[in-house]
Amino acid sequence: MKYFLDAIIPTCEEVGIRMAMHPDDPPRPLFGLPRVYKNAEDMRIIEAMHESPYNGFCICTGSLGENPKNDVPAIIREFVKKDRAPFIHARNIKFMNAQGDFHESAHLSSEGSLDMYEIMKALYDTGFDGYIRPDHGRNIWGEDGVPGYGLYDRALGITYLNGLWESLEKDHA
Ligand SMILES: [Mn+2]
């Protein structure tokens, strides 16, 4: 990883491209495959491998949130403040049991296990001005789309996230 980052980040700085490494999904061993990062501790190791705001993270709230030990708003606050998070995947998941089995849910806090208001508030409070996408969407309303990328559900996710952002802005106006 260090070899890779040392090789690409100087060029990223030169041409103005901020790298945004996505976490493992799910954040635990899977099919014996090598994993990249699953929590804030791993992120700090990767961050230190090559100090640069161009060596950043795509904070995927769903992927990190699939481990209930991960405090997603705290991870957002830490890495946005350090200017290491240019891209956010904002989506929700729902735990089905105490073992941490989960499924992807609608974006609303009430539909899943993550507090999406606290996630958006962490972004708002730290002055985040990068990109946010709703990430995944279920196939709803009879849609037969690419699994995980339903158009309608992602559109609903965008409007919901925009609504949260509007309420945060108005609360602080
Ligand atoms: Mn993602």
Give the C-alpha Rg.
16 Å
Poorly predicted ranges: none
Please state the overall shape, judged from the principal axes of the Cα atoms.
globular
Number of strands: 6
Annotated CATH architecture? Alpha-Beta Barrel
Strand content: 5-15%
Q: State the share of residues found in helices, binned by percent.
A: 40-55%
Largest sheet: 4 strands, parallel
- The SSE order reads HEHEHHEEEHEH
Number of helices: 6
> How many individual domains?
1
CATH topology name: TIM Barrel
The CATH homologous superfamily is called: Divalent-metal-dependent TIM barrel enzymes
Distance between the termini: 43 Å
Instruction: List bound small molecules.
Output: manganese (II) ion
Overall pLDDT score: 96
- Side-by-side strand order of the widest sheet: 1-2-3-6
Secondary-structure map with pairings?
Layout lengths: L1 H14 L3 E3 L18 H10 L5 E6 H5 L6 H10 L5 E3 L3 E3 L6 E3 L11 H10 L5 E3 L17 H21 L2
Parallel strand pairs: 1-2, 2-3, 3-6
Antiparallel strand pairs: 4-5
The structure holds manganese (II) ion.
Short description:
Helix content is 40%, strand content 12%. With 173 residues, the chain is of the alpha/beta class.
Structure description:
This protein is of the alpha/beta class and 173 residues long. It has one domain (2-171): Divalent-metal-dependent TIM barrel enzymes (TIM Barrel, Alpha-Beta Barrel). It has helices spanning 2-15, 40-49, 61-65, 72-81, 116-125, 151-171, and strands spanning 19-21, 55-60, 87-89, 93-95, 102-104, 131-133. The strands form two sheets. The chain has a four-stranded parallel sheet. It has a two-stranded antiparallel ribbon with strand order 4-5. β1, α2 and β2 form a beta-alpha-beta unit. α4 packs parallel to α5. The model has no long low-confidence stretch (mean pLDDT 96).
